[in-house]
From TrEMBL:
The lineage of its organism: Eukaryota, Metazoa, Ecdysozoa, Nematoda, Chromadorea. Pfam families: CUB. Residues 886-918 are annotated as: Disordered. It comes from Steinernema hermaphroditum. One of its GO terms (cellular component) is plasma membrane. It comes from the Eukaryota. Residues 898-910 have a biased composition (Basic residues). InterPro entries: CUB_dom, LDrepeatLR_classA_rpt, Non-NMDA_GluR_Accessory, Sperma_CUB_dom_sf. The chain crosses the membrane at residues 41-63, 850-875. This is CUB domain-containing protein. Signal peptide: none annotated. SMART domains: CUB, LDLa. Keywords: Disulfide bond, Membrane, Transmembrane, Transmembrane helix. Gene3D superfamilies: Spermadhesin, CUB domain.
Length: 976
């Protein structure tokens, strides 16, 4: 029992000890810091955490309004600045008015992309104060060349400052940072503010064209082992490229490769033709000491270039020009061994060179009348697809040399599919459209200019395709109209193969001297000889209108059929003369008439010779000649523009000199034969002094008696042109005087024109006849009055005894013997500076003048006396009538005054006069006195009274009242 109680007690004690151990263990797990905390501290901590979270949220939402940017996004929108707004329920203080913008603010916005990324900014809305040229109050500065966000902006390169309404162009950072600084001092004066855009973090892989060269930040080595095609972009394309920047791109191909670059987009600041500021320079080799292919700037589209070898260097240099925001460039490159082999195309010929920068353009240059050959790419094998080659054939062109190009194809097989089912003939080639391949030939200046500008849409002077057989007319020759010819070869895709060989073409190029003269060349190409056989045409000095070469001789054959004649006139004539104005005949032009005999032999007679200081007038070939030969010669002393002449072939005249006036409508003039009773006369232009017309041909011949000569004196001259002491210009109209008809060379023919007749000295014929010709241009004339020549038959004597007799008179100074009838005829017939035939006529003329004056005065006196007497008689008669009329008026007045009251009686009313008025309107009785006797004691006659006085129904005029009637002196009645 006791044991049981004791066991119970022990069990209970053990349970209590176990519970005590557990309590101690729990007490040991709690910490002293935890036991020291109370509820207030815990609440303060929790409240602080909540406040911090709220502040963070407020900051995040504020930043979201300024820059909607999240680290996890690669693009987004931005809009700034955002001015803080007043919280709800808070009154604005005087220290900061949150509802109004600040008057001077500056905000800095930094865009930072990740590694190997760039920042791209595009502006959607841009409206700030100011203008693009005046950014004083408000602007945005852009820094796009920073390497780190912490770079000093004061020393950094400014990318541009913008204001107004012109938004910046797309901007791409040079590295991975762009900073925008907004500055404004506008404040309350602001009207509108808008600046919104988009940002985008892009990869910079596209800007790494190749492997960086050394430590250069923009130097790349591009090799085909990585890629044979690719693109080269400007450092920040399409954004504005950096200023004062330098980039190099070395393209290094494999042996046998050529490099092609194509400008997909190109926009670099254009500062002038030679690109003095920003530029891209392409070198045909690995260094900048290699030949330059081209230096470009500005806007370029669809431009491609090829290297000659396997290396090409591209340099891009920028300065700091005026703000223009150019976007840079995108250049595509390609390495290939399939481009045209230039060396095969040149074939080792001297004077044949490759045009640097092209795939297969060739220039062939003359070495003075040399011969060369050109051929299609890969000839005689098939040419490649999509290939265009230009062959520029240049002859010599200088002060002394001018050549033309003659192209002749030896073989030609440039194939193009004809329409299905069509069999080609030689006549079909002219109308065939060459779609797959062609050869275009440009021979004129206009077509060459169009071809060089755009050979894809050009019109050629000749276009060839298909295979031509030997000696076909399409093979040529083709001649240029100047020193240059351009040939274009083009192939498309696919090409046509007819299974025959060879393919392509091979042509011979000949350079021959070109004098620039139309017409048929005669003789060797280096001889200046040309034949003209058309009805009309023109010819000119070599190279006209440029200066003719030195030491040159040219012959022009103008040929017509028998029965024809040739009219020749000049549009321009200027030969070289020395600087002192002495026109020596070093350079000259001779005109010959060619007479052909029955046996075929030719006889040349000089028609005219012209040198410097003259402008020849129109002329006609000599009668009986249907061919003219013109010879031009220049020496080594100097050169000038030369001449241009026109010719016309017409039916020949029936007579050399018309036998009488008007015999031929196209040929005026006639032959004048002097005799004893006809020793003087005149020769005048058609219609003188009325204006002459164009295309006038007149010939006069004055023939004297044997042993006599003809003296010509110009009385009046009004012909367009000019004559001076050293220069004669009779371009449109001319008078020619041939005083020696027996001289076949006509070297002494005088050409006259102008308006000063005193410049023409009297002319004495060499023999018994003289010829006067008058020509006007067939083209146009001004049409002046013309000319008036007087002619006199004279005889030159050595002794006075040779001119004796009453019918002869000897001129005192000129010793010319003339007819005595010519004395005192009012014309000077003695020649130059000799008027003795008229000088002795002064006294007789004075007496005659006095007698004429006396007779005229006497006759005038008689006429005056007759007129005076006649007027005196008229005046006397008029005065008598007036006195008689006055007496009658006085007598009538006295009689009517004494008896008027007792002698009135009724009178039978005279019948009315016609009721129809004589005239409309007012009736006026002239205010002149009315004779009392004539008008019944002063009364108006009954017919007149019936017009103005009212009558009763019986038609009897009422008895007038007994009043004294005074003479009616005037009356005016208006018709109602």
């Amino acid at each position: 029992m006791e044991r049981s109680l004791e066991r119970v007690v022990e069990t209970r004690i053990e349970m209590l000890e176990r519970e005590k151990g557990r309590s101690e263990a729990e007490v040991q797990e709690d910490c002293a810091f935890c036991r020291s905390l109370d509820c207030d501290i815990i609440f303060a901590l929790l409240f602080t955490i909540v406040i911090i979270c709220l502040l963070v949220l407020i900051m995040v939402f504020w930043l979201k309004g300024v820059l909607q940017y999240e680290d996890s996004k690669q693009k987004g929108h931005f809009s700034f600045p955002i001015f803080p707004k007043a919280p709800t329920g808070v009154e604005p203080t005087t220290e900061l008015n949150l509802n109004e913008p600040a008057t001077n603010i500056q905000c800095i916005y930094t865009f930072v992309a990740g590694q190997k990324q760039r920042v791209k900014l595009e502006f959607d809305s841009f409206e700030l104060a100011g203008t693009a040229d005046n950014c004083e109050l408000e602007y945005v500065d852009i820094y796009s060349e920073l390497q780190n966000p912490s770079d000093d902006l004061l020393s950094a390169q400014l990318g541009g400052r913008y204001c107004g309404t012109v938004a910046p162009h797309v901007r791409i950072s040079l590295h991975n940072v762009i900073v925008l600084i907004f500055h404004s001092r506008v404040g309350k004066r602001r009207a509108n503010l808008s600046l919104r855009g988009r940002y985008h973090f892009i990869s910079d892989a596209r800007y790494n064209a190749g492997t960086l060269i050394g430590g250069d930040r923009c130097g790349f080595l591009i090799e085909p082992k990585k890629k044979r095609k690719g693109q080269i972009l400007s450092p920040t394309y399409p954004g504005t490229y950096p200023s004062n920047f330098h980039c190099t791109y070395l393209l290094k191909g494999n042996p046998g490769d050529r490099i092609r670059i194509y400008f997909r987009d190109f926009d670099i600041y254009f500062g002038g033709e030679h690109c003095p500021y920003d530029s891209m320079t392409i070198y045909d080799g690995p260094t900048n000491r290699s030949p330059i292919i081209r230096k470009v700037c500005g806007l370029q589209q669809r431009m491609e270039m090829f290297s000659f070898g396997s290396n090409m260097l591209i340099e891009f240099n920028t300065t700091n020009p005026a703000k223009s925001d150019p976007r840079g460039f995108v250049v595509e490159f390609e390495f290939s061994d399939q481009f045209v082999k230039v060396l095969d195309l040149l074939d080792g010929q001297k004077g044949v060179s490759h045009l640097r920068g092209s795939e297969c353009d060739v220039r062939v240059e003359s070495n003075r009348e040399t011969t060369h050959y050109i051929q299609s790419p890969a000839y005689p094998n098939m040419y490649k697809t999509n290939t265009t080659c230009t062959y520029i054939l240049d002859g010599l062109q200088g002060d002394q040399n001018l050549e033309m190009v003659i192209l002749t194809f030896e073989t030609f097989a440039v194939l193009s599919d004809p329409p299905s089912g069509v069999v080609l003939t030689s006549s079909d080639y002219d109308e065939l459209e060459c779609t797959q391949a062609f050869v275009g030939i440009a021979t004129t200046e206009a077509s060459m200019k169009a071809v060089m500008a755009n050979n894809e849409e050009s019109t050629y002077d000749a276009t060839l395709c298909e295979r031509f057989q030997p000696k076909a007319e399409q093979l040529g020759p083709y001649s240029s109209r100047g020193p240059r010819m351009v040939v274009i070869f083009g192939s498309g895709d696919p090409i046509v193969d007819d299974g025959q060989k060879p393919h392509g073409f091979r042509a011979k190029v000949e350079f021959k001297t070109d004098f620039g003269i139309p017409g048929e060349a005669v003789g060797d190409s280096n001889k200046c000889q040309f034949r003209f056989r058309t009805e009309r045409g023109f010819f000119n000095s070599p190279r006209y209108p440029a200066n003719y070469p030195l030491d040159t001789n040219c012959t022009y054959f103008i040929q017509a059929r028998p029965g024809k004649q040739i009219v020749l006139y000049f549009e321009q004539f200027a030969l070289h003369g020395d600087e002192k104005g002495k026109y020596d005949c070093n350079d000259w032009l001779e005109i010959f008439d060619v007479f052909t005999q029955k046996d075929g032999t030719e006889t040349l007679k000089l028609h005219a010779k012209h040198c410097a200081g003259t402008f020849p007038g129109p002329t006609v070939s000599t009668f009986g000649s249907h061919e003219m030969r013109v010879v031009f010669s220049s020496d080594s002393s100097g050169t000038a523009n030369g001449f241009k002449a026109f010719y016309e072939v017409r039916n020949a005249f029936k007579e050399d000199i018309p036998s009488k006036e008007g015999l031929e409508p196209r040929h005026c003039g006639h032959r004048i034969v002097a005799h004893s009773d006809f020793v003087t006369g005149s020769v005048v232009s058609p219609g003188y002094p009325i204006k002459y017309n164009k295309d006038v041909i007149c010939d006069w011949e004055v023939v004297s008696r044997p042993g006599h000569q003809i003296l010509l004196r110009m009385v009046g001259m009004d012909i367009e042109g000019e004559m001076t002491s050293s220069h004669v210009s009779c371009q449109n109209a001319v008078v020619r005087v041939d005083k020696d008809l027996q001289n076949a060379d006509r070297t002494d023919v005088l050409e006259l024109c102008g308006t000063d007749a005193s410049r023409v000295r009297p002319i004495i014929s060499t023999n018994s006849s003289v010829r006067i010709s008058f020509f006007t241009s067939p083209d146009k004339v001004n049409g002046l009055k013309g000319f008036n020549f007087t002619w006199t038959e004279v005889r030159i004597v050595e002794h006075e005894s040779e001119c004796s007799g009453e019918d002869l008179y000897l001129c005192t100074y000129t010793k010319l013997c003339i007819s005595a009838r010519l004395r005192c005829n009012g014309e000077i017939n003695c020649g130059e500076h000799d008027d003795t035939d008229e000088a002795h006529c002064n006294k007789m003329e004075n007496a005659t003048d006095l007698l004429t004056t006396i007779v005229a005065a006497t006759f005038s006196g008689f006429i005056f006396l007759f007129i005076f007497g006649f007027f005196c008689v008229l005046f006397k008669k008029k005065l008598e009538r007036k006195k008689k009329l006055h007496r009658r008026r006085n007598a009538a007045s006295a009689a009517s005054t004494g008896h008027h009251r007792h002698q009135q009686r009724h009178r039978q009313r005279n019948p009315y006069r016609s009721p129809k008025p004589v005239a409309k309107g007012r009736i006026v009785v002239h205010a002149s006195p009315i004779d009392g006797e004539t008008f019944d004691n002063g009364r108006i006659p009954p017919p007149a009274v019936s017009r103005f006085v009212h009558h009763d129904v019986t038609g009897i005029m009422p008895t007038p009242p007994a009043t004294t009637v005074t003479p009616l002196t005037g009356l005016r009645i208006d018709k109602l």
